[in-house]
Amino acid sequence: MMTNLFSVFDPTSSFLSNWLSMPTPLLFMVMTFWLLPSRAQFLTSSVLNSLNREMSLLMGTTSIGANILVIALFLFILFNNFVGLFPYIFTATSHLAITLSLAVPLWASFVIYAWAKQTLSALAHLVPLGTPAPLMPFMVLIEIISNLIRPITLSVRLAANMIAGHLLLTLLGDQGTMENIYITMVVVFAQVILLVLEFSVAVIQSYVFMTLMTLYASE
């Protein structure tokens, strides 16, 4: 039972090409953007402009390159979360190998840039204002540890939330039986409600990942 339950997170359980599902949504988005009606294009542009303004406020800068980077990251995670909700499609963002490969390089680039270009500010950030002198060594250690575990917590949060929803859907699917029509109807209704919640989680987790990464960059 446990093997069957967690086999949905095995990319080689059904098709070796499951990993190819990661870049497919972005290619689909780029191709269909020019084929959508003007109203849909206007809606897409409005959403992207809203994200751009919000990222500029969080980062305290109007750098177009930085905003494009985090928005592209948001779209990549969002579409992979959505695609993973369809049957027989592998959810790449439920694997730590994928989430860590997204979080660690960006986090490392921010840290290296801060220590290389803003060394004094990076050192001052290790000791909060007003810290008593005897506690400064401990605060430096705590700040270093908290900075080191940031990409790990960011990756685990995304993967754990995607895994939890898929496990619940799998468990509910195993409870369905045609022997009792009332139980089957309840299970199907619960699955529909849970699927709607999973769509919401897909959006929220993508937004949280983008926002936290932006806040880390703004520091």
UniProtKB/TrEMBL annotation:
It is found in: Membrane; Mitochondrion inner membrane. It is a multi-pass membrane protein. It comes from the Eukaryota. The keyword Transport applies. One of its GO terms (molecular function) is proton-transporting ATP synthase activity, rotational mechanism. Pfam families: ATP-synt_A. The keyword Transmembrane applies. Keywords: ATP synthesis, CF(0), Hydrogen ion transport, Ion transport, Membrane, Mitochondrion, Transmembrane, Transmembrane helix, Transport. Signal peptide: none annotated. CDD domains: ATP-synt_Fo_a_6. Its main location: membrane. Coiled coil: none annotated. GO terms for cellular component: mitochondrial inner membrane; proton-transporting ATP synthase complex. The chain crosses the membrane at residues 20-36, 57-79, 85-115, 122-142, 181-209. Belongs to the ATPase A chain family. This is ATP synthase subunit a. The lineage of its organism: Eukaryota, Metazoa, Ecdysozoa, Arthropoda, Crustacea. The gene is ATP6.
